[in-house]
Specification:
alpha+beta; Beta Polymerase, domain 2; 6-stranded mixed β-sheet; 4 helices; globular
């Protein structure tokens, strides 16, 4: 894990919080997988909020010099995945978050208090 990925995770968390994301969870997976250092999982209550969350994360990270590598999902999706190489942001509808339960899938990761980022 490097300080840049920690900085990206903090910026993404702050952007999600700004848009009133629900149950934001930051999981350190750096010792479990080579795909990323952090997973950030958040949910929203409707499509407009999900889109606003995506837009805010993308804007804040871009302004800080971290362009998104890839985005899966669109304005009608109930799961949006934003890949920043070392940080992967998952934005879910409440129902899809319960269904896919990424927190359980990655339970061996270390949940991080956002204040520690």
């Amino acid at each position: 894990m490097n300080s840049e990925s920690k900085k990206m995770a903090k910026l993404a968390y702050q952007a999600l919080s700004e848009k009133k994301a629900e149950d934001v969870c930051v999981i350190d997976i750096s010792e479990l997988s080579v795909i990323a250092d952090y997973f950030i999982i958040a949910s929203g209550s409707n499509q407009n909020q999900l889109q606003a969350m995506q837009d805010c994360v993308e804007e804040q990270l871009y302004k800080a010099g971290y362009p998104v590598k890839q985005i899966e999902g669109n304005h009608r999706s109930s799961w949006i995945l934003m890949d920043y190489n070392d940080v992967i942001v998952h934005i879910f509808s409440q129902e899809d978050r319960l269904f896919y339960d990424l927190e359980k899938v990655w339970r061996d990761g270390k949940e991080i208090n956002p204040d520690d980022l």
